Amino acid sequence: MAESFGFILGEYTIPADQPVIYITDSNNARTLQRNLKNSSSFTHRKLVRTVKQGIDYSIANHLEHLTSKWPREDQETTQAKQTYQQGVDTCKRWSTQQPLQKTVAADDKSQHSLTSWDDRSDSSSESNASTGLNPLEKKNRYYFDASMYDNLGRITVIKVFSHQLNTDCTIKIPNKHPRPNLFVVSANQFADNAATQARLLSRTLASNIDTLSYPAFSPRWCFSFEGKITNKGATKVLQERMDLELLLRQQLRKKQGLFNRLASFSGLRMEQIGDESLLRNMIKFTAPCWTRCIYRHPPIVHQIWEYWRNRQSATDRENIPIDIPKNWKDIPLIRDHLIKACPFCGSFGVEGNKIGNLEHLHLYCPNIYLQKARDLGNQNLEKAIYDVYNFAAKIQYNCSQENTTRTTALQEIMEQVARETELQERPVARSSELSYETRTSNKAILSKTAIQIKTLLGQLPASKLAEYDTYPLTAKLGFIIFMPEAEYDVASATITDVGFLGIFPKPILGELRRYARELKNLNQDYEAFLVLTNTLVDALIYRGAKVQKVIHILLAKIKATLQPFGKKENPVVLPANPTPDASSSTRTQRQTTPPLATRRCYAIKCRILHSKGIIRSPMTCAANRNICSGCTNEHQKHKIVARIEREIFENTITNPSLAPLLAYRTQPTCIRIFRKLLQDLPTFATKDRNDHKYGAARYIANTLGILLLDTPNCNLLDQPLTTPHRNNNWRQAKMLCKCNSSPSHTSVDYGTRRFCSTCSFLIAHPSVSHITKCPGCNTNDSWEVIGASCLACQLATLIFRNPFDLRFQTLAATELPLSDSDVESADTYEWPRQQRRTPTSMPTNEPALVRLRQLSISKSFQEIASRSSSAQTKYVFENLGILRTDLQNTFGTQTGSLKRDSTSQQSGSYHDTTGDENLSPRTFKLGKKQLFSDKSQSTVSNATTCSTLTAISRLPLMPIDLNARDHSAEQQPVMANWTTKKQSRMNRIKADKMKKKQEILVESHTT
Predict the structure, then answer these.
(1) Is the alpha carbon torsion for 313, 319, 321, 325 positive or negative?
(2) CB-based contact 324:338 (threshold 8 Å)
C-alpha cells in the first residue's frame, strides 16, 4: 500500500510530460501499476476480482484514475520521448552488468501476468538466520536483471531487493556489490529509514495525535484522499464529512443558513445560544411569525380565505369561490396581498400589504405594540452604550460624558469599526450557490442628512428619522438600520443588517475587549468595564427577544379570531354591509353555531402547577384527548426517563468516557454536552432533536447531581439538588452493601449489578476476577481507589437510591393534598366552587358541642396529615394522636372541669356575657397532673442524682442513619429501659462529682 501511495504522490507532484523512473521493493505495487496500464486486456470482472485484489480498493481505483490521464504516445513531445529512451537504455545497461546466477523465479513482464509476491516474508535475513540456513543459499539479494523493471510508455518501474544495506547505508554483507548500483539501493534504504522512524513516532504519540497528514489529492477523491490518515476508523471520518457537508449545504439556504454564513462575523458562539431558546429560534429564522404560522399550520390558509370572503359584500361573495384555489401560491395577488400579508399593519386583500415575515415584524411593522417593544429595547441599548462611553470619558478626560463636548477615542474607534464592518466581504447565497460580495458604501448605517433625504423621497418612514434623533448612539453603531424594506434581503445581509436577531458583531466586541485589556495593563478598573460590556451585549440580545414575545401575543390573538372559520361542518357567515336584493333575500343564511365546550385538563402536571400558583387554571385538553398537550409531553418524558434509568443500570460505560462528567458537578453545562457525554446509552446515541429527550436529560442530570444551565420554566417539577445533598449522594454512591446475608435478604438484579432491597446499596460481586476490577460489575476498573466502584456503578447507585419517579411522587403528595377521587373530570371552564352555608341554629346541649368539637379536631388532623406523607410525620402525629385522645377523655365528658359551662357561651344578654367572663377559674388541688395512664409510665430512681425519669408510652427512637435511602424510614423498636453509652457515662461522671462534693462537705464539717 505504501508503494502505491508513492505512485499517487508522483502523479500529483511530477509534470505529466516528464518521464519518471520509480524505484520500489514491492512486486505488488509494481504488478498493479503494470496491469492498470494494460487494463484494456482484462474484463471488468477479472479487473475487480484479480488485478485490484490484495491492495486497498480505493487506492487502486485512484491509481487507475490517474493512470487513465496519462498523455497518449502521439501527444508526447520529442524531448520527452528522447528522455524516456535514455531511461530505458540505462535500465538495460544496469541489467547486463556482471550478471550472477539467480536462485528465484523471475517475474513475467507480460501484460497478462498477474503473479506477484510479498518481499516482506522472505526478504529478512533474520527470518532465514532463525532456521539455520545461509541466506545466500535461498536467495541472492545482490541481483538485478531485465525481468526486474517495466517500461510502461511514460514511466519506468524498477524492482530492487530490500535490505542490501544497513541503516547507515553500508553494505550489509561484506564483499558484495549493491545491484543495480549504490545510488538506486541507497534511495530505497532512505525510504525504509523514514518508514521505520514514522512507525516509532506513531507508537510513541498514538494516544496524543488524532490524525496523520499527507498531501491532499484531487477533489474527486476528497473522502478517501483528503489529506488525512485517521486512527479513529472510517466511520468517524464519514460522520465528520457528513457534518461538514450539512454545514456547507445549510449555508446555501437564504434564511436558515444565515448564522452559518456569518459565523465568522458573529460575537456569539453556538454553545452560548443554547439548544432550546428563543434566541436560537430567531437566529435560525424558525421563530413564530405570520409566514411561519402558515408554513407550520396549513389549515390557516383556508381560515384566512373564508374570513376575507365573508367580509365582502353579498354581490362580490357570489363571484368568489368558497374554497381557495389550489394554485394560490402561483397567484401573486392572493399570495402576497392576502395569505402572506401582515395582519398587524393592514387588512387582508388590500394591495400594497407587506409580507409578514420575521424581518418585517422586527424592523418595519408599524403596529403600535411592536413599536413600543422596539422603543423599550432601544432605550436599554442606548443607556448601555452611554454607560460605556461615560466610563471611557472618565478615564480619558476625568469627567463624565455630559460634561465634555469631545468624543472619546473609544467612541470614535467603535463607530469607525461599525462602518467598516458593514463593508467587509461576506458570503452571499444566490441561485443555490455561495459567492462573496462587498458593499461599496454603507446602506444600513447612514448619516442624519442621508436619512432626511430618503424620508423626503418616501423611501423611509418618518419614524426612522425620529429613531435617529432619539437613539443617536445606537444608530451610529448600526444597531438600528436605515435600509428601505424593498432593498432588504436576508440572502445578502451583512452582520450589521441582522442586529435585530441579537447577534453582536465580532469586530465591535473585539474593540471592547481590546480596551478592557488596555485598562488591565494600566491597572484601571477593567472589571467594571467588563460588566458594562456584558450589559451592552445583553441589551442587544433581549431587545429582539422582547419584540418576539409581543409577536407571540399578537399571533395568538389573530389565530383566535380566525379559529371559527375554515370549518366545513359549521361555517361562519358574516352579515353583508350592502342591502340584500331579492335574489339574495331568498337564500337561506347559515346560522352560526357556538363552539363546543372545551374540557379542562386534570392530569397531575396541571394540578401541580395550579397548586403552586403558576397557572391560574388547568390547561385545555387537546383535541380528542382527555389531557392537554403539556401533560402528554410530560408523560412521554417520564417514560424516556424510566428507559434511560434502565439503560444506566444495565450498561457498563468505561471510566474514561464518564470522567469528564464529574467536572460538571460544580460547573454548569448545557444539555447538548450532557447528552454527548452519555452517548454510549442507546437513547442518547442518536442525534435527533427530540424535546422529550431534552426534558428527560434534565431530570437525569438532577438525579446524578449534574448542574445544567437554567432555561425558562426548567425546574418547575424537579428542583436541582443542593450542594450538600449532592455531595452526600456521591459519597454514598461509593459504598457497598453491608447487610448480613439471611433468607429474608432480597436483592434487585440489573444485568451484572445487584442492589440490596434493605439498604439500597450495591451488592459486591461474589468473585472479582482481578483486584483492580470494580466489585460491583466485575467489568470496569475501580475508580481512583482499588476496591472502589467504577463510575458506571456509581451512576447506577445514584439512580437506584434517588430515582426520578420517587421524587415526582413526593412532589405530588406534597403539592396535592386531595386524593384522585376528590378531583372530578369537570367539563366546565372553572373549578367548581363550594358555597358556604350558614346554619340557622346552633346546638345548645353539651353532648352535641362535644361531638362537634371532636369532629373539628379530627378534620384538622386529616387536613394537616394530607399535606405530607405518612412516613414523614409518623411519630409527630402519633404523639399528637395520644395527646388528642387524652384531652378528649379528660375534658370531653367532664363538664365540671371547664372554666365555664356551655350555657355561658350562649348568653343572650350583655350582662350575662360579662358575668361569664368575670367568673374565677376553678381551683385544683396541688399536685402533678398525670397526663398518661400508669400503665404507660415507668420510674427510674437514682440515689446519686436524686432524679426521676418518666418514660413515655412510645419507645425511644434510634439514631438517624444518614446513609439510609429515606431519612424518614421506620426506626426499629428497642427495649423500654434502653439508654445510650453516652448517657451512662454522663451519669457516672455526675455521680463521681456528687460523691466528691459530699466527701469535701463531710471533711469540712469534721474540721
Answers:
(1) negative
(2) no
CA distance 728 to 721: 10
ω into residue 594 within 30 of 0, thus cis? no
**In this structure, what DSSP letter does residue 119 have?**
T
Comparing C-alpha atoms, which of 499, 387, 382, 367 is closest to residue 444? 499
Three-class HEC string of 393-411: HHHHCCCCHHHCCCCCHHH
Of 902 and 359, which is predicted with more confidence?
A: 359
Percent of the chain with pLDDT over 70: 72
Which residue in the block uniquely carries the three cell numbers 425558562? 712
Find out whether 354 and 485 touch, Cβ atoms under 8 Å: yes
Say how far apart CA 22 and CA 154 lie, in whole Å. 11
Instruction: State the number of CA atoms in the 13 A half-sphere of 536 facing the CB.
Output: 24
Determine which helix (DSSP H) or strand (DSSP E) holds 796, and give its type and residue range: helix 791-801
Are 927 and 877 in contact by the 8 Å Cβ rule? The answer is no
pTM (predicted TM-score): 0.46
Contact residues for 697 (Cβ-Cβ < 8 A; gap 6+): 644, 671, 674, 675, 684
Phi-psi region of 502 (alpha: psi -120 to 50; beta: other; left: phi over 0): left
Distances in Å between the alpha carbon of 77 and those of 15, 19, 80, 242, 627? 13, 11, 5, 44, 84
User: Residue 87 corresponds to which cell in the numbers above?
Assistant: 531511461
CB 157 within 8 A of CB 25: no
pLDDT at 917: 41
- Kindly state the cell numbers that stand for 401: 460624558
Long-range contacts of 629-635 (CB under 8 A, 24+ apart): 630/601, 630/605, 630/606, 631/601, 631/603, 631/604, 631/605, 631/606, 633/691, 633/692, 633/695, 634/603, 634/605, 634/695, 634/717, 635/603
Matching residue, cell 514514522: 198
Query: In 735-819, which ranges are E strands?
Result: 747-750, 753-756
Over residues 138-175, the pLDDT tens digits come to 457 787 888 888 888 778 888 888 878 888 888 888 87
Collapsed DSSP state (helix, strand, coil) of residue 20: strand
Q: Give Cα 620 distance to the centre of its chain.
A: 30
Grid coordinates representing 508 are: 465591535
Better-predicted residue by pLDDT, 130 or 772? 772
CA–CA separation, 254 and 490 (whole Å): 6
Q: What is the CA radius of gyration of the chain?
A: 44
61, exposed or middle or buried, with CB in 10 Å at 0-12, 13-18, 19+? middle
Q: How far apart, in whole angstroms, are the C-alpha atoms of residue 500 and residue 197?
A: 57
Residue indicated by cell numbers 531485465:
146
Query: Using H for helix, E for strand and C for coil, what is the string for 255-268?
Result: CCCHHHHCHHHECC
Distance CA 999, CA 1001 (A): 5
Name residues whose C-beta falls within 8 Å of residue 859's C-beta, 6 or more positions apart in sequence: none
- The three state secondary structure string of 850-910 is HHHHHHHHHHHHHHHHCCCCCCCCHHHHHHHHHHHHHHHHHHCCCHHHCCCCHHHHHCCCH
Side-chain-facing half-sphere of 830: CA atoms under 13 Å: 3
Please tell me whether residue 940 adopts helix, strand or coil conformation.
Answer: strand
d(CA 1007, CA 997): 15
Cell numbers that stand for 235 in this block: 466511520
| Mean pLDDT, rounded, for 516-544 | 91
Q: Among 644, 659, 636, 791, which Cα is nearest to 703's?
A: 644
State the average pLDDT over residues 690-701. 83
Helix (H, G, I), strand (E, B), or coil: what is residue 620?
Answer: strand
Q: What is the pLDDT of residue 578?
A: 40
316 grid coordinates: 362580490
Residue type at 959?
P
Closest CA to 798 of 663, 649, 925, 916: 649
Q: Which residues contact 23 (CB under 8 A, 6 or more apart)?
A: 158, 160, 184, 187, 188
3-class DSSP state for residue 584?
A: helix
Residue type, position 768, single letter: V
Cβ–Cβ < 8 Å for 334, 350: no
